[in-house]
Amino acid sequence: MHRIELEHGYFTGRRRLTVDGRTILEQTPGIIDFGSEHPFEVAGVPCEVVITGNGIRFQYHLMVDGAAHPHGGQVPRPIRRKRAGGVLAVVNRCAKYMAVFLAVLGLAFLALGVQSLARLVSFPEHPPRVALATAGTQPDDAWVTLEGLRIDCGSAPIRRHGTNYYLAGQDGGGVPVVVAVDDESCPGEQASGVLHEMGGRNGAELRRRTGAPKVLVLSTWGGPAHELAGAAVFSLMALLGLGLAWLFALHAYDVSRPRSAD
Predict the structure, then answer these.
(1) Does 61 lie in the same domain as 131?
(2) Parent domain of 66
(3) Residue 139 DSSP one-character state
(4) Is the model's pLDDT at 223 over the cut of 80?
(5) Does residue 89 lie within any of the structural domains?
(6) Mean pLDDT of the residues in the chain
(7) Neighbouring C-beta atoms of residue 166, cutoff 10 Å
(8) Does pTM surpass 0.85?
(9) What is the pLDDT of residue 134?
(10) Does 258 map to a domain?
């Protein structure tokens, strides 16, 4: 009776083949593992371990004297994978939970990508020109060119987290309008961007500085280009998350099923 053991790292691709406790092969393939063939002899009889796969799922075969070894019955020592230890053991135990987590994360990024794409197609071909006095009548997140700005480029802007906020005046209802730029340029008498009411900590700071209960902000980096970039990034993150979820799901199935020689 002879004992043949194969260790095959799912993520690393490392192979370790032992016969009767003696290591006869240690090997790590390239970046993508598509399987391999490993011939050897046992007591003068030619044998071969064949690993077949597509880079994600694998099957293992034992050939003895040119013929595939049968299942069960007269198998003296089936090929088996050793129980993983360390980090890989944790990965094996948590694979199904990681698959669920990554699937949820991928779907969340997909939803954000769809949202960015929906905003992108809602924009007109060119931003409509809007007077400063009518800024408060525009819908939230409207892409506009705001005209009649009264910005004192000589005074220091309000700076928050790398963004400069310039007070541009007030709309017809007395609501302060601020132009936000992400560089050192001064917008001048008109600027294009996405107009919205400022919330969060930055909004609270602007309301405190202006003494008004509400502040409208024109984000000059907003618009179709920004939404297109967001849709592309979120889509890539969704594909990455769902792809990794699929790999972990296959791995969870792979480590849970019993193995025997083919």
Answers:
(1) no
(2) 4-82
(3) P
(4) yes
(5) no
(6) 82
(7) 25
(8) no
(9) 92
(10) no
